[in-house]
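Bug #77: duplicate submission created two jobs. Keeping one. Sequence:
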Amino acid sequence: MGAEKGLLLNDDAFEGSDGKGIATILKAAVENGNYDLIMTGAQADDGAAQVGGMLAAMLDYPYASLINSIDVIDDKKLKVGREIEGGNSEMNEIDLPCVLSIQTGINEPRYVGIRGIRKVASVEIPAMGASDLGVSSDSVGASAAKAKKLDYFMPELGEGAEMLEGDTEEIISKLIEMLKAKGGLK
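Kept job's structure:
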């Protein structure tokens, strides 16, 4: 796990972009570079889980979503897996270049030692804005957004709802007890 270089896409014109706007920005960056594999989050709050699919469609690249395993077959193909209903896994081959929406937990990040931190501390990460990418400011940002975020909130507990607290084992035990008591488990 590591990167050879980074790129910061940053411009006030990008603020308030919806999923399509974010995909438009990323498409321009991908077309300005030379990338075989583009990975997006599966369910980020900035695109309502739409960015990966939209980006793939805009680039006309193959796309796979909710990926939790990746194996390189060769320089033209990957084997990707995802969990499906019932805890089963589905394995597929996908041609490169492609876009994958990655599921949380796909890897175990490693701790970077002080030597590695010092090595990258002075590395410049180029920043690109709308004009650098050739993106029209009227195609991104809040003015171009068809979907607008109104609010984020935790829903109120409804009648009969109960939030279980504790560590994972405690929550599981409480849930099993509740299900047994209400006839859900025998």
